Amino acid sequence: MPKLKTNTSLNSAYISLRKSCSRYFQLQFLIVIVMISLGIFWLSMLVSETEINKALVAISLLVIISGIYALSGLYFMMKKDIPTAFNILMHQGDDIVWIYRAELQMMPFGVDVFHRGRLHICTLSGEVFMLRASNPIINRFINTYTTKYEHITKGYSIANQQLFDIDPKLLIK
C-alpha cells in the first residue's frame, strides 16, 4: 500500500479508511458465502427427499443465484471501483470538488444490526466514486482531507447536488 507524502494525520486517516473499507468487504464476502452455502445445503437436502417440493427448490435456487450475483458485484467493486477511488484520493486530490458521507443503516426486521457509511467522492469530470466504511472513520477522513485540500466542498445538501449536476466546477471553493 503506497503511503501519502503529506502530513502524518492525513496518512493515518487514509490507512484507517482503507482498513475499514477492507473490513466492510470482508464482512460482505462472508455474508455472500454463507448465503450461497445455505442455498446449496437446502437444495441438497431437498434433492435427497423422495417428494420434492418445487417451491422450496425454486427458493433454494433463487438464494444461490442471488448470492452469485452479489459475489460478482463485490468482485467488480474490489477490482475496479475501490482501487480507482483510492488512486484519486492519493494522487488526484486537486480533481476532487465535493466529498460527503451518506449513512447506510442495516435494520432487518427492525433490528439495528450496524451502521455503515458511504464516502462519496465527486470529481471535476462529473464522476462519483463511493467507498463503504464505518461512519467515524469516514468523518475523520473527510475532516483531515479537506484540511489539506481546502478547495473541496464537504457535506451533502440538495444545493450542492444541484450545483454538481449543473457543473462540478461550481463546487470549487
Unreliable runs, pLDDT <50, ≥5 residues? 1-6
- Please report the distance between the alpha carbons of the first and last residues: 31 Å
Strands side by side in the biggest sheet: 3-2-1-4
Q: Give a short account of the largest sheet.
A: 4 strands, mixed
Average residue pLDDT: 84
Strand content: 15-25%
* Helix proportion range: 55-70%
Alpha plus pi helix count: 4
Radius of gyration from the alpha-carbon trace, in angstroms: 20 Å
Silhouette: elongated
Q: Could you state the order of secondary-structure elements as H and E?
A: HHEEEHEH
Q: What class do helices, strands and sheet pairing give?
A: alpha+beta
Strands, count: 4
List keywords for this structure.
single chain, 173 residues, 4-stranded mixed beta sheet, 4 strands, 59% helix, elongated, disordered N terminus
Structural topology:
Elements: H1 8-48, H2 54-91, E1 96-106, E2 114-123, E3 128-133, H3 135-148, E4 153-154, H4 158-166
Parallel strand pairs: 1-4
Antiparallel strand pairs: 1-2, 2-3
Helix pairs in contact: 1-2, 1-3
What would your notes on this structure say?
The protein is α+β, with helices and mostly antiparallel strands. It has one domain (8-171). It is built from 4 helices and 4 strands. The protein has helices at 8-48, 54-91, 135-148, 158-166; strands spanning 96-106, 114-123, 128-133, 153-154. A 4-stranded mixed sheet has the order 3-2-1-4. Strand 2 and strand 3 form a beta hairpin. Helix 1 runs antiparallel to helix 2 (54-91) and helix 1 packs antiparallel against helix 3. The chain is elongated and about 70 Å long. 19% of the residues are buried.
